[in-house]
Amino acid sequence: MGTNTTTAIGLWAQAARPKTLPAAAAPVFIGAGLAALRDGFAPLPAGAALLGALLIQIATNLANDYYDFLRGGDTEDRVGPVRVTQAGLIAPEQVRNAMILVLIAAGAVGAYLAWIGGWPMVVIGVVSLVLAVAYTGGPYPLAYHGLGDLFVFVFFGLVAVGGTVWVQQGVWPVEALWAGSGIGALSTAILVVNNLRDIPTDRAAGKRTLAVRIGVSASRAQYLALVVLGLAVPPLGIVAFGWPPATLATLVIGLAAIRPTRRVFGFTQPAQLLPALGETARLVALYGVILALALAFGG
Question: Do 183 and 155 form a contact (C-beta atoms < 8 A)?
């Protein structure tokens, strides 16, 4: 019984894909840091925003696992972490039901945020819940029509940072959009690596990601541009919004970005991008923590 329970927990943890969670948490950290910079940090709303973001990410991961299997996007030829539905580790209907339960939990957190933040949070919450499924499910899945990159940039950047500031302070300042563009760009870079790796299998399955549409060379340039944008945000934030000079500490990720960038520009086989995926995810986590702390305490 103990072994079976342990195995089940491990499988569900694998389905939740915890390595993707820093991309959900980082923009909330930054939004909390911005609020602290302007003497508006509110721990309970910020904590609820973090919990909601993590639940939405997990629900999206489960939805991707389920719907990519149904649509044939995940096959035995896929390179990368095991998808539990495609591998037959968890029954499809169980993954679907788990997705629904996590969405309900996210909705409960969203109700609290809507009570605090009013109609803007109602809109953000409803759209986020819908898009968690619509990313790979529904009649027009975003990922299958080359819109995944835009979705990640907007919701893991602009909306996540801005919404976190809003529930704490009741304002949505321009600097929140600027900060969101930096972390949104880096989060999108994770997706670029993922989609570069999957071009052969996505093309065969009819999944027209942006990487499939624009090809390897343009996707490599996109990755570099996104990393550069992320690095440009803090120094320009100092000039435009008076951010503390300590935010320049985020430039340390420029060094950490060298290795994954080399992998992206040098790979010849999809499997060679697997390390770059984790390295880029760690860039996002490091960037989010450093920028949040610098905003909160650097001034």
Answer: no
Q: What is the mean pLDDT of residues 220-225?
A: 98
What are the distances in angstroms from CA 40 to CA 6, 36, 45, 96, 109?
Answer: 42, 5, 11, 39, 21
8 A C-beta contact, residue 156 and residue 183: yes
Is residue 209 within 8 Å of residue 198, measured between CB atoms? yes
CB 58 within 8 A of CB 101: no
Cα–Cα distance, 20 to 98 (Å, whole number) = 18
Sort 44 into a burial class: Cβ within 10 Å, 0-12 / 13-18 / 19+: exposed
* CB-based burial, 66-84: b 16+ in 10 Å, e otherwise: bbbbebebbeeebeeeebb
Looking at the structure of the chain, the number of domains it has is 1
Does some domain include residue 9?
no
Query: What pLDDT, on the 0 to 100 scale, is given for residue 139?
Result: 84
Full DSSP string of 24-48: HHHHHHHHHHHHHHTT---HHHHHH
Question: What is the spatial distance between Cα 80 and Cα 7, in angstroms, rounded to a whole number?
Answer: 21
Q: Are 155 and 135 in contact (CB under 8 A)?
A: no
Residue 182 counted as domain residue = yes
Scanning the structure block, which residue is given the tokens 């996104």? 226
- Give the whole-angstrom CA distance, residue 218 versus residue 240: 31
Per-residue pLDDT tens over the stretch 91-148? 999 999 999 999 999 999 999 999 999 999 999 999 999 998 888 888 888 989 999 9
Query: Is the model's pTM score more than 0.90?
Result: yes
**Is 191 a domain residue?**
yes
Domain boundaries, position 44: 23-294
